[in-house]
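Give me the 3D structure for YcfA-like protein.
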Amino acid sequence: MKLPRDLSGLELAQKLKKFGYEITRQTGSHIRLTTQEKGEHHITIPAHNPLKVGTLSAILLEVAQHFNISKNEVIEEIS
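Predicted structure for YcfA-like protein (79 residues):
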């Protein structure tokens, strides 16, 4: 599945709420998200618009690994 090309960091943070992630803090241009589902997990995403494709891919892969699902399943869920 193809990655979205026009997603901002803040939009991604909102979409990741489906996985239980909540914004816990923001320092400068970086947003820290935390979920308690399937154990505590933190990710940091830049508040850039748009996110670079490689950065977005790495974030989605990290989420997929935490939930033990494929990256494509994460992409489908946030699309």
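Strands lie at 22-27, 30-35, 41-46. Let me know if you want a second pass.
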